[in-house]
Structure formats: C-alpha cells, structure tokens
Design goal:
With 129 residues, the protein is mainly α. The chain has two domains: 75 residues; 46 residues. The chain has four helices and no strands. Helix 1 runs antiparallel to helix 2.
Length: 129
C-alpha cells in the first residue's frame, strides 16, 4: 500500500533521487568513455534508459498528485476531522433522522390516544346499556 505522503514531498523526494542518479551516472560516464567503444555505447544506452525511467517516474508522480488532489476534494469530512468552521456539519449530521423519529413518535402517540378514546367510548356505551 502506498503511504499517504503529500504530493509536494513526493516530488521533492523524486527529483532529489533523479538528480542523485544523474550525478552518479555522470561520474561513471567519464570512466566508461575512457574504456572501449562498446562500453561507451552501453553506458549511453544505460543513461538513456535511466532518463526515460526518470521521465516515467515524474509522470507517475504527477498522476499521483492529481489523484491525491481529486480524492481530497471528493472525501466527505467526518466528525473526527471537523474544524470550527465546519462545526455545523456535526450539528446537522443527524437532523433528518431526528426529525423523522419525532414525526414517528408523535404519530404513534396520536394513534394510541385515539385507540384509548375509542375503547373508553365502547366501555361507556356498554356500561350505559
């Protein structure tokens, strides 16, 4: 699993590693050029592969930075990450459920009251007869 590192830090880490590899290759290229022509050709080819892999790494870092930004925008804040500006989110998070519960309770109480009144009328009618 890829750790959640901010994209700026990833870019700095990637560019530092690329420049470090480039520095090492530049040092070894001089030695390779003093050897046989086959070694020099191999060193140039290796340098080209490293440059291409560096470009690929930079591209994948850019894609990951875009994905990180997209995901941070799309994620919904949770009560544990609420700041003072977003405090109304936590207050209103369960308001719909609470309103529905209050309506249900009031309708149940009304139904119960009407049933009791109907039973009372029935008992009164039986008692009067």
């Amino acid at each position: 699993m890829i750790p959640r590192i901010p994209p700026a830090l990833l870019v700095m880490l990637g560019s530092a590693s690329l420049y470090g590899v480039k520095y090492l290759l530049d040092k070894t290229e001089r030695k390779a050029l003093t050897g046989s022509p086959e070694q020099a050709e191999q060193a140039k080819r290796h340098l080209r592969y490293v440059k291409n892999s560096g470009r690929l790494a930079a591209g994948s870092l850019a894609v990951y930075a875009g994905y990180y930004a997209y995901r941070s925008i799309q994620e919904r804040p949770t009560p544990s990450s609420v700041t003072k500006e977003e405090a109304d989110f936590h207050d209103n998070q369960y308001s719909n459920r609470d309103n529905t519960y209050k309506k249900n309770v009031s309708s149940i109480e009304e139904k119960r009251r009407l049933d009791e009144e109907a039973r009372l009328k029935k008992l009164q009618q039986e008692y009067i007869k």
